[in-house]
Design goal:
This protein is of the alpha/beta class. It is built from 15 helices and 21 strands.
């Protein structure tokens, strides 16, 4: 990679940041080096948040919450609608910045911002539907109901692989529910966070201009840039009743006990070791396409990436040679190029973890196809492009049960459907799953048996829509974000009983008559 090309990436990133409304002082002379995985070159130096600044930010966010909670929910929805408008107007610029900083191919960078737009649309409508139940009371002239109320400051800790979309899942819901938000993004992707925050501030200003007052207060959304110490401060603060954290299972093991210690809520989106079962009746053309994106998309760096493929012995020799051909011919390269399908790994440690896993599989007599480093434009030392790997292995050993965040697909053969279901569930994680079959009995048994939060039929494990609740079970953490009724996690529920009569009957027939 020539210096001129690297310089052009840096210049482009800075142009995009300016276009998106980020002040130059935020990324021109800071302590945190932001790099592009495309070349490994430095893009910017981002100013970090000190512990005292973070503590002050949390206090300011709590003050903003106290004002925002009183704004009617449909008006709160209007702010989120305006955020969606800002995102829609800047989808190309922000999507391109995602490509530069996270290494996603162009359509995936654009798609990530589209996901943000979609959740804003969903949340704006939701703001008129934050409804509780009316419940029958056993007492005459009494009405019982449940109501939902804002919770407080919501902490958001996000990962590099979806640097802005996961923030939006949480932010859009938290805001319409009447909460303030404090976001600690990944240290690997601070620039996209700065850009998303700047667009939010544009939407907030438009909202206040239309209202003719500071209806959406300052510090309603706050950004903390820095290392894991800021995340710890967020997790430990009594001003933060809910933390939504996306990352590794190891991170979740550290976060969950600290939140539990102070009885705070947690939404944890952690590891995923996702599997697909390919049955004898599967449409193999459709299956091949479904596997390809699920296993290789985002260079295998999605939490929903397909990592295990359980194939019936009767179709194994028909499917796997075709899959190897796809793997050997898939376009790997600069994600800015329109024809590229697989971009770089995020950094060197990700490459090292992939190679370590492949070496471990080979010690178990597995057959490894692919996995080697690829030369892209001279392949500078800090850019890591790899051929996605297929690992044919005879049993689900510990290396298969361990999630490696890289494009490795372990392939196992099965004969009995019950055995396939057992192998599918026999991992610590439980995020996403799928089955390829035209047999309705197999499909329904799979949906009833899969222990994952997401279970699909005849599509891959990746590419969830925002209308459904997103999350998983077991070591995936149990949290739910995005659609359906995930909003309830961002509010507190109160049960209310109203006596509109003249008597005071007690529940369960209790008698307590005073003289």
């Amino acid at each position: 990679m020539t210096t001129a090309i690297a310089s052009s990436i840096c210049d482009e990133a800075r142009d995009l940041l300016a276009q998106l409304g980020v002040r130059e002082s935020a990324y021109s002379s800071g302590e945190l080096v932001a790099r592009t995985p495309i070349t490994g070159e430095e893009l910017a130096r981002v100013r970090t948040t000190s512990p005292q600044e973070a503590a002050d930010a949390l206090a300011a966010a709590h003050k903003a919450f106290e004002a925002w909670r009183s704004v009617p929910a449909p008006k709160r929805g209007e702010l989120v609608r305006l955020l969606g408008e800002e995102l829609r107007a800047n989808v190309d610029a922000l999507g391109r910045l995602v490509t530069l900083e996270a290494g996603k191919i162009l359509s995936e960078g654009h798609g990530e911002v589209q996901e943000m737009i979609d959740i804003c649309t969903f949340a704006a409508g939701l703001s008129r539907q934050l409804a509780g139940l009316t419940l029958p009371s056993e007492r005459a002239n009494h009405r019982m109901m449940e109501t939902w109320h804002p919770l407080g400051v919501v902490g958001i800790i996000s990962a590099f692989n979806f640097p802005v979309a996961v923030w939006s899942w949480n932010a859009a819901l938290a805001l319409v529910c009447g909460n303030a938000i404090v976001w600690k993004p990944s240290e690997k992707t601070p620039l996209t966070a700065l850009a998303a925050h700047a667009l939010f501030e544009r939407a907030r200003q438009r909202f206040n201009d239309a209202a003719g007052s500071e209806l959406a207060p300052a510090n309603l959304s706050t950004l903390l840039i820095g290392d894991s110490g800021l995340g710890e401060l967020l997790v430990d603060s009594p001003l933060v009743p809910l933390v939504s954290a996306t990352g590794s299972t190891a991170m979740g093991r550290a976060v969950a006990p600290r939140l539990a210690k102070r009885f705070a809520r947690a939404i944890l989106e952690l590891g995923g070791n996702n599997a697909a079962i390919v049955c004898p009746s599967a449409d193999l053309d459709l299956t091949l396409r479904g596997i390809a994106f699920a296993a290789m998309g985002t260079a295998g760096q999605r939490c929903t990436t397909l990592r295990r493929l359980i194939v019936h012995e009767s179709v194994y020799d028909k499917l796997i040679p075709r899959l190897k051909q796809v793997y050997s011919s898939v376009s790997i390269g600069d994600p800015r190029e329109p024809g590229t399908l697989v971009g770089p790994l995020i950094d060197g440690p990700a490459f090292d973890a992939m190679q370590k896993a492949l070496r471990s599989a080979q010690t178990e007599s597995a057959t490894v196809t692919g996995g080697e480093r690829i030369d892209v434009n001279g392949n500078p030392s800090e850019a890591f492009y790899v051929r996605p790997a297929i690992v044919e292995i005879s049993r689900q050993s510990e290396i298969v049960k361990h999630e490696t965040f890289a494009p490795i697909l372990y392939v196992l053969k099965y004969g009995d459907f019950d055995d396939a279901l057992a192998v599918h569930n026999d991992v610590p994680q439980g995020l996403s799953s799928s089955i390829f079959t035209l047999n309705v009995r197999e499909a329904e048994r799979f949906l009833a048996t899969s222990d994952c939060g997401i279970a699909n039929v005849n599509i891959g494990t990746s590419g969830a829509e925002i209308g459904g609740a997103f999350g998983g079970e077991k070591e995936t953490g149990g949290g739910r974000e995005s659609g359906s009724d995930a909003w309830k996690q961002y509010m507190r529920r109160a049960t209310n009983t109203i006596n509109y009569g003249t008597d005071l009957p007690l529940a369960q027939g209790v008698s307590f008559d005073i003289p």
